[in-house]
User: What shape does this take?
Amino acid sequence: MGRKTDAAKQMEPSIKTDSPQKILVTGGGGFLGGAIVRRLVARGDHVVSFSRGFYKDLKSLGVDQIQGNVGNKMAVEQACQGIDLVFHVAAKPGVWGHYSDYHKTNVTGTQNIISGCIQHQVSRLIYTSSPSVIFDGTDMEGVDESVPYPHKHSAHYPETKAIAEKCVLKATSDHLMTVILRPHLIWGPRDTHFVPRIIKRAKRLVRVGNGRNLVDTIYIDNAAEAHVLAADMLEKNPALSGNIYFLSQDEPIPAWDMINAILRAAGLNPVKRSMPRRMAWLIGAVLEFVYQTFNIDGEPRMTRFLADELATAHWFDISAAKKDLGYVPRISIKEGLKHLENWLSK
Assistant: This one.
């Protein structure tokens, strides 16, 4: 065999020498869930995916697939039978929608997973959350996991994810060890949310704020590796149970530089128009009122949460993940953008 390139080495999954485990991944057909599944399969684990759909690429990997909704308690509890480890990745993302929909998936779904783990004596649960659970509309620069939840969230997604985090922490015990991960703005090939939204709105995008706000993101393979590391380290060191970890590239850059880099990877022009944050926030408030009052389908082009998110700094101290999990972002933003460009060109 030829010598492996640096890129190939970086893409290699971590190899676990212990006996194969039977692992359940909720949302295994999704962006992050799928990346975790592929990494686990590559190292020899027996993987079961619990998703709403059936996926041919998972079938080709030999992954057992269970179709269902995490809001269905009976289906979730049955899926947990005979499982050693659960990655609970499935969630309802986005900045707009009915609270009941977010609650059913993000809160009730997590409660169902916890119930299934306890009922079938699953010893470890890795829960995928989001840094948005602590976002209060102000700049967050280099903050760590000690930052408390805000008194009020301005969108249903962070609110319900924060409730779910609390459920996981409450359920943590000697019988159910848990780790909560907060990856920030996952992107890369196969992306079904972040990158497609930017590309779809390319011609209508307007820079909000002065453009100097720094953000950190995380490339998909780095995020997947961090999840597997968390599970492995939790098994080796139960003292990590109940911990929360931010995950990122550890490479904050101006938010609009990142957005323009993604547009460039897609062969599109950069964002040139701009708007003051206050104006965007007011437009968002008006649109939210109109959409709610007249029950308009779809999503407003701007919301208050989105205006705040686009104009503020949000990057995080990931030293805890480095120390406890051995996490290192192996694929840089530059290399990740090359992979993204190749994927988009196909």
